[in-house]
Design brief:
The structure is a single chain. This protein is an all-alpha fold and 383 residues long. The chain has one domain. It has helices at 6-27, 36-42, 44-66, 70-105, 114-130, 132-141, 164-182, 186-204, 217-237, 244-258, 263-277, 282-292, 295-302, 304-325, 330-367, 375-380. Helix 3 packs parallel to helix 7 and helix 3 (44-66) packs parallel to helix 11. The chain is globular and about 60 Å long. The two termini are 26 Å apart.
Length: 383
């Protein structure tokens, strides 16, 4: 299957913007989730869960189609993440103190949810000051998300709080070829399922320590599994005579009925239905393509990783400038935070074309193999 799934690239941009909107609202003191709309906008974690599902889907597709040995695969994945991660983490290092000072002095400190937010920012700043060498080493490996707070406080959030999910992504990349190899046989799939379920249960019971969010792969494994299963099932499902709209409605209904936080699974279920069967409905299929595949959106989607990393530093910079220049009303801060998003999108394009893409080309150049590698050889090369 040579399909490129450009619709996923567009979805990534929407998800990155969703995360940025939520972060901007929180910095402006709008953290009251009593309204359904506000609650949805603030639920950036749902967007990150969809990113996990997408990662499972895309990496399964890559491994299934590229016929690439482990070492070239992991080198290319490393250079896909690391250069932009380093640049943005360095920027975040210099911004954490101004960010903490801003939150400590904000005039909307009585707003619901603000105390927890301000305390978290101060906690990150304190941990960065007191354990700088340890945080530098942890981030240099991109495994900082695996370190429980009992060992290193705020390990997953220091420098660049959003980068906890980059560590999670890297953890997944390291083991993904083994996972896909296990899926090739019923015995391997059984062993994989039992092992993953056991690690998941033990992780949530705190056997490995306690983590901020889903930064440890064992705790997030079901979402990557959904993405992998979605890709492996795609060839079997795509030619079925199914209408995407009823399928999407059914997927949303099942997600709402069976899961506590239905938002990410409902969105993925609806999106996946149209990814599969968009050609079976001329009207809604065309609408789906219009909102996911325009060329400008594709370009922005390619830079969505940079946008995900850059938006908060840009938001903090503009917030500090606003507070220092004219003082900050809550509405004024919210306006600045929202204005920061398109500005961050422009900078993300510069980061993508100036840093990400050159390093991706470099990695491709140094890993080119003149001899094709069989799927069996891929399965035999473990981490």
């Amino acid at each position: 299957m040579n399909q490129r799934f450009n619709e996923i690239v567009g979805l990534r941009f929407y998800l990155a913007v969703w995360v940025a909107v939520g972060h901007g609202m929180r910095l402006a003191g709008y953290a009251d989730e009593s309204s359904p709309v506000t609650s949805l906008l603030l639920n950036g974690d749902a967007a990150v869960v969809i990113f996990m599902i997408i990662s499972g889907f895309v990496i399964a597709h890559l491994i299934a189609t590229s016929r690439e040995a482990y070492v070239p695969y992991i080198i290319r994945r490393f250079f896909r993440l690391y250069p932009a991660f380093v640049v943005c983490s360095l920027l975040g290092y210099f911004l954490i103190e101004p960010w903490a000072q801003l939150t400590a002095a904000a005039p909307w400190s009585d707003e619901k949810g603000w105390t927890a937010y301000a305390n978290a920012v101060e906690g990150i700043a304190t941990s960065q000051r007191e354990h700088l060498a340890a945080h530098l080493f942890a981030h240099a490996t991109m495994l900082h998300g695996m370190i429980p707070r009992e060992i290193l406080p705020y390990a997953a959030r220091t420098f660049l709080p959003a980068a906890w999910s980059i560590s999670l992504e890297w953890q997944f990349y390291l083991i993904a070829p083994l996972i896909l190899a296990a899926c090739r046989s019923s015995r391997g799939l059984t062993v994989l399922t039992v092992t993953a379920a056991a690690l998941y249960a033990l992780a949530w019971k705190g056997l490995f320590g306690h983590f901020l969010g889903l930064s440890f792969i064992a705790m997030a494994s079901p979402y990557f599994a959904i993405g992998i299963a979605s890709r492996l099932a795609f060839p079997k499902l795509v030619n079925l005579p199914v209408s995407p709209l009823p399928a999407a409605v059914l997927a949303v209904s099942v997600a709402i009925s069976l899961t506590k936080d239905a938002v990410p699974l409902a969105i993925w279920g609806a999106f996946y239905s149209y990814l599969l069967w968009q050609n079976n409905d001329r009207l809604t299929g065309r609408m789906f393509r219009l909102v996911t595949t325009p060329k400008p959106l594709f370009i922005l989607g390619e830079a969505s990783y940079s946008l995900y990393l850059l938006h908060r530093p840009i938001q903090v910079i503009l917030a500090v400038i606003l507070a220092g220049a004219v003082g900050a009303s809550q509405r004024g801060m919210l306006a600045v935070q929202l204005i920061a998003i398109p500005i961050a999108a422009l900078f993300s394009l510069a980061l993508f074309f100036g840093i990400e893409k050159p390093f991706m080309k470099f990695a491709k150049r140094v890993t080119v193999s003149k001899k094709p590698v069989s799927p069996a050889e891929i399965a035999a090369t473990g981490p």
